[in-house]
From TrEMBL:
Gene3D superfamilies: Hotdog Thioesterase. Residues 48-127 form the Thioesterase domain. Signal peptide: none annotated. This is Hotdog fold thioesterase. Keywords: Hydrolase. InterPro entries: HotDog_dom_sf, PAAI_dom, Thioestr_dom. It comes from the Bacteria. Pfam families: 4HBT. The keyword Hydrolase applies. SUPFAM superfamilies: Thioesterase/thiol ester dehydrase-isomerase. Belongs to the thioesterase PaaI family.
Length: 140
């Protein structure tokens, strides 16, 4: 990875964001993938007691954003921002944890495209998402 930032520094940066509020925990970052987990509880449920699709999208976009930031050549002058995301919700989950794994599809100079697969504790597919990140210049 190009960035001088570490997964640990990004975890600290995310503590006071939606990532921290939903209890998302980043687990691993390698050249091939980034992983995280999210609890399925009152913070992430929809009114009928199952995982809210929007919470899955937050997990997916958070994974892709962190993966892109870790690949920036200069995180002082560059920013990674979400451009487009889609998600297909495959299976419901009512408790425990879901796990996300983010792998690159395309790593260009101005865009990154990520495949994010979210599974339950039995490794069954819960949600599949594709995220496009725009690499932009930071405002001075």
């Amino acid at each position: 990875m190009k960035s001088p930032l570490t997964l640990e520094s990004l975890i600290a940066l995310n503590k006071q964001s939606i990532v921290g509020h939903l209890g998302i925990e980043f687990l691993e970052a390698t050249e091939e993938y980034v992983t995280a987990r999210m609890p399925v509880d009152e913070r992430t449920h929809q009114p009928f007691g199952i995982l809210h699709g929007g919470a899955s999208v937050v997990l997916a976009e958070s994974l892709g954003s962190v993966a892109s930031v870790l690949r920036l050549s200069d995180p002082i002058t560059q920013r990674a921002v979400g451009l487009e995301i889609n998600a297909n919700h495959i299976r419901s989950v009512s408790s425990g944890w879901v796990y996300g794994k983010c792998t690159p599809i395309h790593l260009g100079r101005t865009t990154h495209v990520w495949d994010i697969r979210i599974t339950d504790e039995q490794e069954r597919l819960v949600c599949i998402s594709r995220l496009t990140i725009a690499i932009i210049q930071a405002k001075a």
